[in-house]
Design brief:
Length: about 240
């Protein structure tokens, strides 16, 4: 819940020339009120727009929710689902994430499905099972071919907005387990194709080493994405 419409448009206009030669997919996910204006502002650039949530029904008495049709009208390509803040503050469930993911996918919107453990699960040592369960619940009902087109974002809750960052080894351990979980359920082809991101206080100083991890395919960027220079340095990291 950052940036007004004007601030969001200003940010992407600053960002666009800084990432125009990016060799990776660039997606910005502004608040709902700014989606349309930001989508207009990035037309003709290599920046895609994503929403921060979507409902699973096409229309109806769901005050405060947004449908896939509304996002399609704006030109939204991606949608973040099951972010830890949605789960923690607003009661988002694995079942709800799954239903939203199917709705988004069926509407041609790529789901960015978030998963991750709180500190107590990490300290208990059961975090791999915890994350695997979240992933399998979110992907229930999808085919191998569909799973290959989805994005999974691992965001350890204990590293969100705390300034703490999982070590590169910790990030790789869980992202590798996610890929193995997908492989066991949907096959190696789907597991190799699915994009697995890491999110949690991602910074320009850490992105290069993070991306050297074999099972980390990208980054879900939080605070650093609010500054065009910082975000562009993450996008344009050097191998």
């Amino acid at each position: 819940m950052n940036n007004t419409i004007a601030e969001g448009v200003k940010l992407v206009k600053e960002l666009a020339p800084l990432v125009k030669d990016a060799k990776v997919t660039v997606v910005v996910c502004p608040t709902a009120t700014a989606l349309s204006s930001v989508a207009d502002a990035v037309k003709g650039t290599n920046i895609h727009v994503g929403a921060q949530n979507v409902h699973w029904e096409d229309h109806g008495a769901f005050t405060g929710e947004i449908s896939t049709g509304m996002l399609n009208e704006i030109g939204v390509d991606y949608c973040v689902l099951g972010h830890s803040e949605r789960r923690g503050y607003f009661g988002e469930t694995n079942e709800g994430v799954n239903k939203r993911a199917h709705a988004a996918f069926n509407a041609g919107i790529t789901p960015i499905i978030c998963c991750g453990e709180p500190i107590e699960i990490r300290e208990r040592g059961s975090y791999l099972d915890f994350v695997a369960f979240q992933v399998l619940e979110a992907l229930a009902g999808f085919t191998q071919e569909e799973v290959a087109k989805i994005v999974i974002a691992y965001e350890p809750i204990w590293a969100i907005g705390t300034g703490k960052t999982a070590s590169f080894e910790q990030a790789e351990e869980v992202c590798k387990h996610i890929r193995e979980t997908v492989a066991a359920r949907f096959g190696k082809t789907a597991a190799d194709a699915i994009r697995i991101q890491y999110g949690g206080s991602v910074k320009p100083a850490t992105i290069s080493d993070l991306m050297k991890q074999p099972d980390v395919d990208g980054a879900l960027v939080g605070g650093a994405s609010l500054k065009a220079k910082d975000f562009s340095e993450i996008v344009n990291y050097q191998d």
